Amino acid sequence: MNKTELLQSLEKESKDLTYKDGNLGKVKKRAEMLVTKIFGGKSEYIPALRKIRFSPAMAWSGMDKSYYEKSFISGKNELINLINVMQEDLNLSDSFEIIENGETQVIKESFNKIFLVHGHNEEMKQSSARFIEKLSLKPIILHEQPNRGRTIIEKFTDYSNVDFAIVLLSADDLAFSKKDKVENASFRARQNVILELGFFLGKLGRERVVVLFEQVDNFEIPSDYQGVIFIPYDSNGNWKLPIAKELKAVGFKIDGSKLLE
Predict the structure, then answer these.
(1) Which of 143, 148, 205, 217 has the highest CB neighbour count under 10 A?
(2) Which residues of the chain have a pLDDT value below 50?
(3) Ranges for the CD-NTase-associated protein 12/Pycsar effector protein TIR domain (predicted)?
(4) Cross-strand bridge partners of residue 106
(5) Residue 4's closest CA among 89, 111, 87?
(6) How many other C-beta atoms are found inside a 10 Å radius of the C-beta of residue 214?
């Protein structure tokens, strides 16, 4: 698991905590261990973790047990909020700012994020994601990222700060013009996938966007994207080498031997 996935798993463990399950101590120890590994032993998150209270600050004989449970819930929410801050911190650490001649410049520390736009074809999504990981790159799949109270548009915008996009056009919808008959219907990709394709073409440019489309009969490929690379998807993996070439052409470090694994 990478750092982001570790914090996501910690967040899930924290959300799953209940007052009587006895797992609080284990989660607290794991949280401190992960903070030390990810942010260092002198991180400000360590004292912040230790300050979180899961029991009342004061107690007396005969005190209603509901106070203990309320304190536990309050501490649990505080822990989850702190983990969310850590995740945001980790996302921001992918870039840092320098001041030069009065101007702020953002310098990327990593060049490895690839946004994976997908429809409902799970095989295409999974095989593409695993291929990206095999190249030691990081696939960004939107629904796998934490929501943190954001709308879909806000979340999409936040995670669209990537170096490349691979758009998967799968035969998810069946559609036809109102002037045509039902028998003339053709397969199409989901409309949100087409929308995101246009977004990344505008944001990254044509040279940093590749379309991988499902090979089925009567599949309609968008006609208004001249100059965009369209590569047919097949279960034999013949699409992998063309995508690797496009990645290498824009500066990604690609180890050719990994294509043979």
Answers:
(1) 148
(2) 95-100, 104-109
(3) 113-234
(4) 97
(5) 87
(6) 19
